[in-house]
Design brief:
By secondary structure, the protein is of the alpha/beta class. It is 51% helix and 11% strand. The chain has 2 domains: 158 residues, 3-Layer(aba) Sandwich (Rossmann fold); 90 residues.
């Protein structure tokens, strides 16, 4: 390659990236880093070095002089691609490259589970993850079709909103929360009937139809993705696989977990697995999408 100053050449340096020097930790941070068994909940506000502590705890488990864990046995979960990317970059810098632990969002980890442990057909043709906008259109069309066919009795006072994506978005939120809370379509239908809420009763029927259509079209939404991962993780086969592989779990922003995410954590943490959850109830900002801050108070 030519440059203004003459010829320029490039060389690939295969030597490993030098590991970053460990930071200085206070006594409480060091206690988190030293944790090796069972559950540990860390309550920490902004600016207290939460991410630094998680990174050091991950490095300590992998580089432990007495009982080092392979990188494949360490799992770190957080919220959002950006947060996961930043945490992964810091782990890479701290470890200096090499084999790395899994650092991902809950949904990415759940998707990986469904692919890794699904059938051959599911591996060849994995389900497509729907965006929120796509799901709104699907639900609107399903709802309109079900009302036109007489499959559900939709309340007259809400009939004017049937064609709107705004209503579809609200319906999607209700169905997602039902999945997160473990409420099956038939249960939702019964709840609506007992409470005198015909819309909820209709949504119970719609939820069953939506699940059937998802299977036929080989698509999933975020709630269904987690739901499938939890169902598999609770099976004897799933527990054996997860408990045999994962020995240390780290969760950032635990206050933003929803019931399905907590259920997934409960399923993948075995008797010989340590879990460190870091969060701050005063920073819970995702209640609108199902996050339940009470989960942080019910932590084991």
């Amino acid at each position: 390659m030519q440059s203004r100053g003459g010829p320029m050449s490039f060389a690939l340096d295969p030597s490993p990236i030098p590991a970053a020097a460990p930071p200085t930790l206070d006594a409480e941070q060091q206690e988190v880093v030293n944790h090796r068994s069972g559950p540990l909940l860390v309550l920490a506000g902004p600016g207290t070095g939460k991410t630094t502590t998680i990174v050091e705890a991950i490095a300590a488990r992998i580089n432990d002089p007495v009982d080092p864990l392979p990188a494949s046995s360490v799992l770190a979960l957080t919220f959002g691609k950006r947060a996961a990317g930043e945490l992964r970059d810091r782990v890479v810098t701290r470890l200096g490259g090499g084999l790395l632990p899994t650092v991902s969002t809950f949904h990415s980890f759940a998707y990986g589970l469904t692919l890794q442990h699904g059938t051959t057909e599911e591996y060849r043709e994995p389900p497509r993850l729907l965006s929120g906008a796509e799901e709104d259109v699907r639900i609107r069309d399903l709802l309109l079709g079900a009302v036109d066919d007489g499959a559900i009795a939709w309340p007259d006072d809400l009939s004017g909103a049937l064609h709107t994506l705004g209503l579809a978005n609200e319906v999607r939120a209700v169905l997602a929360r039902a999945k997160e809370l473990g409420i099956e379509p038939a249960q939702l239908q019964r709840i609506g009937a007992r409470s005198g809420r015909p819309a909820w009763e209709a949504l119970g029927i719609l939820a069953r139809q939506e699940s059937e259509v998802m299977v036929l079209e080989n698509v999933v939404d975020y709630a269904e993705l987690l739901h499938r991962a939890v169902l598999w993780a609770r099976t004897p086969q799933g527990r054996r696989a997860l408990h045999g592989q994962i020995r240390a779990v780290f969760v950032d922003e635990y206050q933003d977990t929803d019931p399905l995410q907590v259920a997934l954590l409960e399923a993948l943490v075995g008797p010989h697995t340590s879990i460190v959850a870091v969060g701050d109830p005063d920073q819970s900002i995702y209640a609108f999408r199902g996050a339940d801050v009470t989960g942080i108070f019910d932590f084991p």
